Amino acid sequence: MTDLLSLSHVTKIYRQGGLLGGRHITAVKDVSLTLGQEPEILSIVGESGSGKSTIAAMILGQTAPSEGRLDFRGSPVAVHGRVERRAFMRQVQPVLQNPFEAFNPLKRVDRYLFETARSFAPDGKRPSREEIERMADTALSHIGLSLAEVKGRFPHELSGGQLQRTAIARALIPQPRLLVADEPVSMVDASLRMAIVNLFSQLKKDLGLSIIYITHDLATAYYISDRIVIMKKGEIVEQGQARAVLDNPQHPYSQALKEAVLSTTPEI
Ligand SMILES: Nc1ncnc2c1ncn2[C@@H]1O[C@H](COP(=O)(O)OP(=O)(O)OP(=O)(O)O)[C@@H](O)[C@H]1O
Question: What is the CA(45)–ligand 1 centre distance, in A?
């Protein structure tokens, strides 16, 4: 069966600086990984600058690889073309890091939900007001909120946790098959982080979603993931079942990460 997602020898090189004296940075180097059709949470863990966000951007089709290829359900990840991008984004949705940046402070949060519902109506037709509200309310119900609770509110009128959950609900409106969540809880109060990452496990179970969870926090990754990929300096240094990676890390970097997890009180 065709994989849901496959990255094959993916490399991304950025050029920094001017034409003269500029330098190249290899953000991601020869990364290969796959997600099967079975719903799964895959965490990509690594320190700052290890290439995690660059991988997320390539999976979302926001930037093309310099080498290698990315396929979603057997077709190249759509980077160009409005129609192709829209069709692709119906199936693959991002959850952004900072909900306070994702939402304009002067815009009511329900507007974001309604705009997404309008853009991704199931049959591609212009949905009625009732349908739009129903799509928003259904998505919110999956994350434990309702439209009545967020309607008419500005971002500052919701808690950080509620706002991040609303951002996740927005990503659910197109009924995607894959969520790409890049550090989705790093800006959320420590006491709420676990509730939000637990939500991912719930969504996997309830909606059959696969989730790529990008984080520098091995503890939350271990807790919710089926598989973990550990990155260092743009390369995968270890990957495997979450339990195997944490119980018996093979690479010195993974061992050091585990030590760091065990020696600090996890903020979860
Ligand atoms: N648009 C860009 N142009 C030039 N260099 C970039 C660009 N984006 C990322 N880089 C560089 O690529 C490398 C990997 O960055 P990336 O953001 O993918 O890492 P990360 O693991 O997500 O880090 P963080 O956890 O801090 O977000 C870094 O050296 C970064 O400076």
Answer: 14
